[in-house]
Amino acid sequence: MSEKKIAYYPGCPSETTALEQDISTKAVFDKLGLEWVEVEDWNCCGAAEAEDPRLVYALNARNLAIAEKEKVPSIVTPCSICYYNLARTNNALKQDEKLRAELKALDPALDYNGSVTPKHILEFLMKDVGQEALKSKLTKQVKLKVAPYYGCYLGRPPETAFDDPDDPVLMDQLIALIGGETVPFSSVKTVCCGGPLMMTRADIAFEMARKILETAKKAGADCIALACPLCGMMLDAKQPDIEKALKLSFEMPVVYITQLLGLALGIEPSKLGFQKNVVSTKKILEKVG
Amino acid sequence: MPIKTWELDQNFKTEILNEPGGEHLTACYQCSTCTLGCPISELIPSYNPRRFIQMSLLGMREQVLTSPDLWICAICQTCTARCPQNVVVGDVLSAIRRIAEKEAHAGKIKIESPRPLFETAFLHTLQKYGRLYDIGLAMEYYPKREGSKVKGMMAMMGDYKDFGMRMFMHGKMGPLGGGSPMKGMLPSKIKQRDVMVKIFKWIEEKEKEEK
């Protein structure tokens, strides 16, 4: 395992709707004995709503520059879209000296020299910390049937992807590592949850989410695992709304992969935010014991 | 649909090519891989990224910019990932949406979708606070979408009454579950908000230069 300190970029939902993701990510970092520092005074990455790439580059240059001052090799985020925006900014700024100079001239806070590598939490855990190191710290088997949901931005676009675009495996491997079993889920595991359309075309967004929830249910999953707060919002926090609108019942627990890993590392469920998931996680916690 | 050649705008493709993200438009050879893999096309048969590109290349500027389908892309990047010509389809569509927004701003077209209002409200919270502020976003978005403050508030309550209660009960917003008692209710503000203001001003100036 890398001994070096990392910068943690939580992203906006970490303060509210995805509180349990933030709590469990930090708890996992601590349990793994990692030295980490939250990016001080971090700003929003622009999410999917900043459609002008230049706006994305400027917003993320500031976060990368703050991390760079900490002299850390990587900036780790548990959000897929934050990852995408950080990673494409890093690529763009490394290649474009003129843009770098322009941003630096705009404000010294945007002076970034390209020394920090953005990492999504899943990639960081599986590739940087590594399976062997993780395995050595596990104290509990998480014997659950899990539907691994990757969503967007982990396997695509190719420019920033770190897993296979059609059949990503890192979450499947992590679930197997902690003693879980993955259910057949490849038909939807990389299909968009509809999150970006929730506020403007809820009808389409609900249909997209339905497909994922229904597939998990039919496959006999105890829960869906994911690694993005927007997917969490759509599949967990909005699940009762989807059930009501489409007159369906799922009652499918949706948890962050860091919550499941935390259990395997022997962390108390209350310290992993399991009481904050909207769909009750009681049954899965009982099953894990 | 019949194409009226005398209405075509030959410069439209150049306009897209000059927009950040639109640079690869002309590499498209119309194979339709983008559309066949698109999760939105699967649900909404009229939605067709390939056709947007073809229409843009032909110069069907007005039809492209006023299509309501332009605003139902989920930005999931499946089209981009699968394109054999590296057109970066997602970014091309985003570039077209930005042109449409500029045209709507100038009063030249009307956009039949609330999405620009949503994106603008979202970005306004970043500009002001440096972070997303959900309640502030909703308070701007819903009244604009519904055309009045009262109707907006009613629509917002319809969509978010149950959801808000869920967030409250699970301690994600408000005093339950530790942290600040007002968490999520008030904006989370960064210290260097002046940098946000500079960034947004810089973008605005860039857009002016392009005109």
Description:
The complex is a heterodimer of chains A (289) and B (211). Chain A has 289 residues and is of the alpha/beta class. Chain A has eleven helices and eight strands. In chain A, helix 1 links the parallel strand 1 and strand 2. The radius of gyration of chain A is 19 Å and the shape is globular. Chain B has 211 residues and is mostly helical. Helix content of chain B is 57%, strand content 0%. In chain B, helix 8 runs antiparallel to helix 9, helix 8 crosses helix 11 and helix 9 runs antiparallel to helix 10. Chain B is globular. The two termini of chain B are 31 Å apart. At the A-B interface, helix 2 and helix 7 of A face helix 3, helix 6, helix 7, helix 8 and helix 10 of B.
The proportion of residues forming helix of chain A, as a percent range, comes to: 40-55%
Strand share of the residues of chain B?
A: under 5%
Number of helices of chain B: 11
If helices are DSSP runs of H or I spanning 4 or more residues, what is the number of helices of chain A? Answer: 11
Report the end-to-end length of chain B measured between terminal Cα atoms.
Answer: 31 Å
Structure class of chain A: alpha/beta
Largest interface: A-B, 57 and 60 residues
Structural class of chain B: mainly alpha
Largest sheet of chain A: 4 strands, parallel
Order of helices and strands of chain A: EHEHEHHEHEHEHEHHEHH
In short:
The complex is a heterodimer of chains A (289) and B (211). Chain A has 289 residues and is of the alpha/beta class. In chain A, 45% of the residues lie in helices and 9% in strands.
Q: Helices and strands in order, then pairings?
A:
The complex is a heterodimer of chains A (289) and B (211).
Chain A: E1 6-8, H1 19-31, E2 36-38, H2 53-69, E3 74-77, H3 80-95, H4 97-106, E4 117-120, H5 121-137, E5 145-148, H6 170-177, E6 181-182, H7 202-218, E7 223-226, H8 229-237, H9 239-246, E8 254-256, H10 257-264, H11 282-288
Parallel strand pairs in A: 1-2, 1-3, 3-4, 5-6, 5-7, 7-8
Helix pairs in contact in A: 1-10, 2-3, 5-6, 7-9
Chain B: H1 12-17, H2 33-36, H3 39-43, H4 49-58, H5 61-66, H6 78-82, H7 89-105, H8 115-129, H9 134-146, H10 149-169, H11 193-210
Helix pairs in contact in B: 8-9, 8-11, 9-10
